[in-house]
Amino acid sequence: MLDLIENTLGILTRITNSKAILLLKMNDVEVSILSFLGDNPENYTQFNSSLFLLYKNSGTDINNTLIENLPECKTVMKEIGARSCFIKNVHFVSEQNESVFLLIFMSGVNSIPDIENDAFKSVIKVLANQIKENFYPEEGIVPPFPERRAEEKIVINNWEDNFNKLLTIVNDLIFILDKDGCFLKVNNFGAMMLDYDEPEMIGKHFLDFVEPDKKIEVSMAFSKMLLSERVTKIKTTLISKLNKKIPVEIAGRTITKDDKIVGMLGMAKDLTKLDKYEDELKKLKPKLIEAHRLISLERSRVWQHNSLIEELDRLKNEFVSNISHEFRTPLASIIGFSETIVSDPDLPEEMKEEFNNVILNEGKRLAKLINDILDLSKIQIGKLTLNKTNFDLVAMLNEVVESNEQFASEKKLTLDFEHPKKEILLYADKEKLGQATDALINNAIKFTNEDGRVKVIVNNLSKEIEIIISDTGIGIPEKDLPYIFQKFYRVSRPGTEIPGTGIGLVFVKQIVDLHKGLISVQSESGNGTTFMVRLLKNIGIKNS
């Protein structure tokens, strides 16, 4: 009968896809293992002790939640790779206050309704009868209805009939082999899986149904099984009557009687769908990797986009602050000097004239600032047009240099202009190029300290005209060089307040770009800056 119990537990192993099964007897005095399938039972010693204490406190009301919350249970599950634990009281003797519990450590996360199907219930019923007949043969319980209990006992004791019923509801190949490996019994579903009728398979050797290339491997596995009392598993391929290959996983163990091996009980699970799903997963895996990569790229783009928006918001706020300051400074001078002239009729004429000059200069400065912003806005929306004419570039630059001499003189700087003696004719927008070069020269003077030097050079090359504005000023930090032509960007100089809106160099680059030219910069913090503007001759000159 112990062999039958172990065989029944083997069937439960297949039904529940379990890692280990324990049949424990517990009473008020001790806990003991009646039967076990799995690895070394000594690994469960601490767990059994904790379960015994739980039984003494809770009695038969032990449930899955209580079990899985035991630290010892978690340790065992981790060691054997189980994900859930199921417990069921399969027999109880009230006179002895003794219970037999079935514990199943499962590899899947199954709830009780998931595994308490018809097949599971049938096997549990068979197991309960086997436990009663093997361990409690003298158990006497006076039934309330003697006739009915007698009938039930006849049905329950007929374990072979219950086992045959079990064979009809399990959707796997279940078989019993004799000691030579020939079929003694096979379930109807298993025979149909191989396109046979049950009687056709009886008496045939198991290896007759194995793919020829796998026969040696299966034979060695069966030989190994004969030397072990544990359940042995092997994957192989069976050949149906119609020569169809069926991948299966076989789990089996020996049947012994009087310490002799008399046969083998096994179950073969069809892996066709599983293999198909695995193939599909292999096909989907590259797509999944690609999808994750694309999602990662999109996240990166969104992050960069958000960072860019945040940076633009910061620059816009900074621009508004700077432009407000640039507006307030000339306006304060204009308002202040105007109020002084109006409030003091006795103001000397020479002072009035001086104040009027300040008001005029500040007004021009304000008008220039507004025009720069408007021009930049027109460039951004593509509405700025170039009014091209033929003009002498040297003469135009000379005018720009002269207009900045006073500013250079006030800062005690040397302003030089080197150019060819011959005129250089260019077909371009004289006014816009004048504004661009004026902004570069003005910046060079602004960022050069006293006794420094600013130099403007014109080179008449073979195909290009080169304009160089170089200074010995404070220079531009290397980290800021890539951004100086961006709208609203200003070089951060801690502790130094330098006027400006951050649109001057943007305007210069846009004007050069409209002329299909090129502007570049070389600078080093503390060692001056050099801007170089190049314009193509063949684009610039037009015959009159």
* Oligomeric state as shown: single chain
Rounded mean pLDDT is: 82
What separation lies between the terminal Cα atoms? 119 Å
How is the largest sheet built, in terms of strand order? 6-5-9-8-7
Q: Output the structural class.
A: alpha+beta
- The number of helical elements comes to 18
> Which residues sit in consecutive blocks of at least 5 with pLDDT less than 50?
141-156
CATH top level class name of the largest domain: Alpha Beta
Q: Report on the biggest sheet.
A: 5 strands, antiparallel
Can you tell me the CATH architecture of the largest domain?
2-Layer Sandwich
**CATH-defined topology of the largest domain:** Beta-Lactamase
Approximate strand percentage: 15-25%
Number of domains: 4
Indicate the radius of gyration in whole angstroms.
48 Å
Give a count of the beta strands, DSSP E runs of length 2 or more.
16
Helix content: 40-55%
Tell me, what's the shape? elongated
